[in-house]
């Protein structure tokens, strides 16, 4: 690797909140982070058979890579997440999705670890995806973009890690689809992953989850503004379809208990029913808000491609055998985490991963965290999650010869 | 009440720890907060794993850097491969399993040795409670009422030894424990132990 990308391997300076236009991102200029071009000489071999390259990858880093290059943690984001783990989102201005976990003395201690998070292949925050221009046609890819898999996303991440001059990651961590990437890393590059934390995830997407994704995709593709995926050349956006997709998906991220606690049957700014189809209930108003804000920051075609990648994910089938075969001989230290009220990626899915790891006598910890917040719990302030992550990372750091944190509790 | 030995480890756990060879692979089933695993890692350089049913126990163990999964002896032991460990430890948990026989067999399938301790239901205090009050015994070491106890498969030391015989298990070492978890060598492992030991502790293996 000639490109050691030295410029990106330096201390992270907190940046002032800057709001940029999405066009800045699609033009390849990423004012808040780094971008790198990969695969120009050696294209990415996608699972669908297509060779893709070069690809642009947008990523963020926090902390400093040590001299041994042994303290790097790759954070994998979820379906609608992005690389802005701990920075204000460039479009919405909202805090990073794990900002409460990243920083000096926090769970992902930037005084000790070098954190990397890249936007996934097929994404819409700077990494090559369907919104970008197909160099062969000079037009946006749209649905002519090749169908990608979780494995493809991980191949691209591995190229990025190569470019950063890192042989072995100290840890790969992620929740939901990020957890799928963690498992894929362990199966594809076991020797490059010292420790792994798959959170609220599964080794394959369930029929129920494929079904929910299909509802979302149908909402998008039946929106007249989708134009067969070519909305860019019609100066349109299937915002209604994408909003409905987000609303349906958002329900699956919560739990009945969380919805009830938050909204109950409370009415939104009115004393009685409208006897019409306004957003009478607070929960309706909330979902509509979720949908309408989501479309500002996410590309509809990216949503199609990334949900498809999740649907195709089946770690055991990829290696035509039992799930345990995917992990044979692995030395990685695992910490599998689930949440008791998560019905999208229920504990039984995590337990299946744990049992597969047991079957190859892998080094594994497994914690089901009691929470009524549903799947979204991994993004929320859950002290038990923070304590588990901190304890596991400290234990792994000791085995890797990295300094342990001073505070046993970590957190904030 | 259990007392603490040197190094902060409970006396009965220290007796278990003494049975473990340094540098070995250990699975502690029902490991609680992982204090035995932590001690073994620190003092005997053991590659330790744990299984614990309580969320609080697992969280405490993982938060101190131990490799512990949430699970239990009945459901999780079957997932490990043959000979994955040198020692599989089941401390004061056998009586709470659904299928003690399967658990014992699994322990000696996945481990070269099994270390098992359990409260002795043959203890004179238990016998006398039942004999003189006609009610299920509640004692210092058996503190639950019958309707709330997690202990569903009580046995005496003699019962246990009979089962080991039936399963072709070799008892390499046996220790009778008093109410404080300390060893009482003078009890032996015969009728005296069955009457006076509060707990039995056994190092098991299966030849062939």
Largest interchain contact:
A-B, 29 and 21 residues
**Percent in strands of chain B:** 15-25%
Average pLDDT across residues of chain A? 90
Helix content of chain B: 25-40%
Q: Tell me the count of domains of chain B.
A: 1
Low-confidence stretches of chain B: none
Structural shape of chain A: globular
Number of helices of chain A: 11
What is the CATH domain class of the largest domain in chain A?
A: Alpha Beta
How would you state the average pLDDT of chain B, rounded? 92
Portion in strands of chain A = 15-25%
Task: Let me know the number of strands of chain A.
Answer: 14
Overall strand count of chain B: 7
Name of the CATH superfamily of chain B: Vaccinia Virus protein VP39
The number of domains of chain A is 2
> Which architecture name of chain B does CATH use?
3-Layer(aba) Sandwich
Largest sheet of chain A: 8 strands, mixed
Look at the structure and name the CATH superfamily of the largest domain in chain A: Alpha/Beta hydrolase fold, catalytic domain
Give a verbal description of the structure.
The complex is a heterodimer of chains A (412) and B (208). With 412 residues, chain A is α/β, with parallel strands linked by helices. Chain A folds into 2 domains: 6-205 and 314-400, Alpha/Beta hydrolase fold, catalytic domain (Rossmann fold, 3-Layer(aba) Sandwich); 209-308, Rna Polymerase Sigma Factor, Chain: A (Orthogonal Bundle). Chain A has 11 helices and 14 strands. Chain A has helices spanning 22-26, 150-163, 177-188, 207-221, 239-253, 256-262, 282-297, 300-312, 315-318, 347-359, 383-400; strands at residues 34-38, 44-45, 51-52, 55-62, 72-76, 102-103, 108-109, 114-118, 133-134, 139-140, 169-175, 193-199, 333-339, 363-369. In chain A, the strands form 4 sheets. Chain A has an 8-stranded mixed sheet, with helices on both faces. Chain A has a two-stranded antiparallel sheet with strand order 2-3. Residues 1-30 and 407-412 of chain A have low confidence and may be disordered. Chain B has one domain: Rossmann fold (3-Layer(aba) Sandwich), CATH 3.40.50.150. Chain B is 33% helix and 22% strand. Chain B has helices at residues 11-19, 35-44, 55-63, 73-76, 100-110, 124-133, 157-166, 191-196, and strands at 25-29, 47-52, 67-70, 85-91, 111-119, 170-177, 199-205. Chain B has a 7-stranded mixed sheet with strand order 3-2-1-4-5-7-6, with helices on both faces. The model of chain B has no long low-confidence stretch (mean pLDDT 92). The A-B interface holds A 333, 335-336, 351, 354-355, 358-361, 363-370, 384, 387-388, 390-392, 394-396, 398, 408 and B 49, 55, 58-59, 61-71, 76, 79-81, 84-85.
